[in-house]
């Protein structure tokens, strides 16, 4: 098929209004999500477990700045065995695994349903408006050639087998704008806003289920305890004054 001459008025009365409509819809969706969001305050016991793991991890990563005796004392505090040492270390406490309970938590399920509902309702409304007001429009042409595999993605709502693949329909442009302007929306609304379409779609499709499975305390305690027990301490500030002054450091016996 030959070249199609696109009316410049399409840019002013279709393309720009679609972009403006999408921006307004995204901002409204963000503020609605903020209003529906409830404060998720973690339980005190879970916060204590996380802080314990953080302290043990910081000790393991920065132990080179304390003496060997100080490191051994702190290591004993975290990893001591009641059977061998007579004292139970902090990382050997019996803690419950709340990972599966978090998945069945009604509050978490309600929060996920709110996010899905906000995204789906606004998306359906926008698709209806675009299809009603701008349906059947060929809006623009991409400045490069494409294969026939992209025809279904770029020409939704237009059933013309002879139309060149490089032309984009109104409905396809809406999806391109929706998935392509997430970076701009992050600049406009701030990073980590409630209206990131990629994250909302990820939540809707269930790809982000692993992030909400909860805190597996027994596994994390065991992993950190083993790492701390096997860690070899080496004092980095030994002979610091001689290193600073440039004197030769005597070799260890």
What this model shows, in words?
With 253 residues, this protein is an all-alpha fold. The protein has one domain (8-36, 44-205, 215-239). The protein has helices spanning 8-36, 44-62, 68-79, 82-85, 99-103, 106-134, 151-154, 170-180, 182-189, 197-205, 217-230, 240-245, and strands at residues 138-141, 167-169. It has a two-stranded antiparallel sheet with strand order 1-2. The chain is elongated, with a radius of gyration of 29 Å. The termini are far apart.
Strand and helix layout:
Blueprint: H1 8-36, H2 44-62, H3 68-79, H4 82-85, H5 99-103, H6 106-134, E1 138-141, H7 151-154, E2 167-169, H8 170-180, H9 182-189, H10 197-205, H11 217-230, H12 240-245
Antiparallel strand pairs: 1-2
Helix pairs in contact: 1-6, 1-8, 2-11, 6-10
Question: Nutshell version of this structure?
Answer:
This protein is mostly helical and 253 residues long.
Question: What are the defining features of this structure?
Answer:
EMC3, transmembrane helix, mainly alpha, 253 residues, 12 helices, membrane, two-stranded antiparallel ribbon
Q: Based on DSSP secondary structure assignment, what is the total number of beta strands?
A: 2
Structural class: mainly alpha
- Tell me the number of structural domains: 1
Task: Please state roughly what percent of the residues sit in beta strands, choosing from under 5%, 5-15%, 15-25%, 25-35%, 35-45% or over 45%.
Answer: under 5%
- Specify the overall morphology: elongated
Report strand order across the widest sheet: 1-2
Radius of gyration based on Cα positions: 29 Å
SS field, number of helical segments: 12
Mean pLDDT: 78
The level of helicity is 55-70%
Order of helices and strands: HHHHHHEHEHHHHH
Largest sheet: 2 strands, antiparallel
Instruction: Please give the alpha-carbon distance between the first and last residues.
Output: 86 Å
Main location: membrane
InterPro entries: EMC3, EMC3/TMCO1
Subcellular location: Membrane
Transmembrane segments: 13-32, 119-140, 171-189
């Amino acid at each position: 098929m030959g070249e199609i001459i696109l009316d410049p008025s399409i840019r002013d009365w279709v393309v720009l209004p679609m972009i403006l409509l999408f921006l307004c819809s995204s901002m409204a969706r963000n503020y609605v999500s903020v209003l529906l969001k409830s404060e998720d305050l973690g339980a005190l016991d879970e916060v204590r477990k996380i802080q314990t793991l953080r302290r043990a991890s910081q000790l393991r990563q920065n132990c080179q700045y304390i003496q060997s005796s100080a490191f051994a004392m702190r290591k004993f505090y975290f990893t001591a065995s009641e059977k061998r040492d007579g004292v139970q270390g902090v990382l050997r406490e019996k803690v419950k695994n709340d990972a599966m309970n978090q998945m069945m938590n009604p509050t978490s399920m309600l929060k996920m349903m709110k996010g899905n509902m906000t995204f789906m309702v606004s998306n359906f409304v926008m698709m209806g408006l675009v299809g009603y007001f701008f349906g059947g429009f060929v809006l623009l042409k991409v400045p490069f050639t494409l294969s026939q595999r992209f025809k279904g993605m770029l020409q939704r709502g237009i059933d013309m087998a002879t139309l060149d693949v490089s032309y984009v329909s109104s409905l396809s442009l809406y999806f391109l704008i929706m998935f392509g302007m997430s970076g701009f929306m992050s600049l406009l609304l701030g990073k980590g806003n409630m209206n990131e379409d990629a994250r909302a779609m990820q939540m809707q499709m269930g790809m982000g289920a692993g992030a909400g499975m909860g805190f597996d305390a027994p596994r994390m305690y065991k992993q950190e305890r083993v790492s701390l027990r096997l860690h070899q301490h080496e004092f980095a500030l030994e002979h610091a004054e001689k290193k600073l002054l440039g004197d030769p450091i005597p070799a260890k016996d």
